[in-house]
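Review session, final week

We close the course with one last complete record, chosen because it touches almost every idea we covered. It is Protein translocase subunit SecY, a protein from Flexibacter flexilis DSM 6793 with 440 residues. Go through it on your own first, then we will talk.
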Amino acid sequence: MKKFITTLKNIFSIEDLRVRIINTLLFLGIFRLGSYIVLPGVDANKLEGNTSGIFGLLDTFLGGAFSNASVFGLGIMPYITASIIVQLLTVAVPHFQKLQKDGESGRKKLNQMTRFLTVLVTLGQSVGYVTATIPADAIDPYFGKTLFVASSMITLTAGTIFCMWLGEKITEKGIGNGISMLIMIGIISRLPGAIIKEAASRNMDGALVFVLELVVLFFVVMGVVMLTQATRRIPVQYAKQVIGNKVYGGQRQFIPLKVNSAGVMPIVFAQSLMFIPAIVATAFREESEVAGYIGSTFGDPSSWQYSLTFTVLIIVFTFFYTAISVNPNQIAEDMKRNNGFIPGIKPGEQTSDYIANVIDRITLPGAFFLAAVAILPALVTQLGVSRDFAQFFGGTSLLIMVGVVLDTLQQIESYLLMKHYEGLMESGQFKDNDQNVIVA
């Protein structure tokens, strides 16, 4: 406990880190405040609070903004959807591939395209959101349906753009990882209420069952932490060089390849795509039986169709995001430039192929474990756990919270190490993961 208090004092003694933490808290406070500002023309007292199925999961990510019909009703999700589309284009379209390789100028152009696409996606999703979730008796008669839908589209789009701006500011002036931080704070805001509700539903007779649920949840969290931190270390030997009277190199280091190199992004990407069929189909459920079936099927996270599609998307996005975030050719080239080689493997193309094979072998089990944890809430719901608490028992909510918390700890750890303070983690795992990365 004494070490923990000393570490907290060290954190707030670093001016830059202290300012970034305060900025992050202020931006997150603004985001939470916006989730309670209701759309113009909506009577909040007449909202049905539809938080079942896919809407309940979306409401969890947005911290209640969805069910509150707030100006942040769609939150940051349209931006994530737009990011998915742009990243897919960088793989499939040569023009976007060229922009990705153009360095800072290309990155700025891709960011501008992502922002523009975010506006289009938000406008489209806002129509389904307004027509499917806000009852007619909650709308002020002064507006009329057409005027209300038009004004809500503009307001929701502005809210999403503002959320996107907040995320960028958290990344720039805060601790970092702003977009994921916004999602995490929305999830955490619902966690205390879900635990209290689950405990109340069990009463004294079910106290043992509730304690057992917490114990199982603890081990699930530990498993997710292990998945996030697990690495496969590839040994790298550097050749000795004699420069003047000194000998350089000749030491062995390691390339730490994470089992889950994609982090939480496959879950976020897959979940964003899973929202689209339910929202769009619900908007047209009265005109088409097929739309009604799709809306009911993909609007229920506990259905086998939803779980199967969700699992496939997670596995696909895990390999996709790993492929664009870890480049075996670049790693092999950097090793060759620095006179490094993997024992028993020739430098160049064979090294690149070897690293790619290792990445494929460790990514496959990581992707399946990621998918298993993601669909765990659907399984525990069938065992009697309340739907609200099951969303935190595993799945996307838990993965996002663990991933973002670990990333935040790593950011704080780097500031402490730069100022020569003792780190947060006694084992120094965060430090090892950073020191062993080979750069050009």
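Two points worth writing down before the exam:
The first helix runs from residue 2 to 13.
Strands lie at 231-238, 241-243, 246-248, 252-258, 340-341.
Good luck, everyone.
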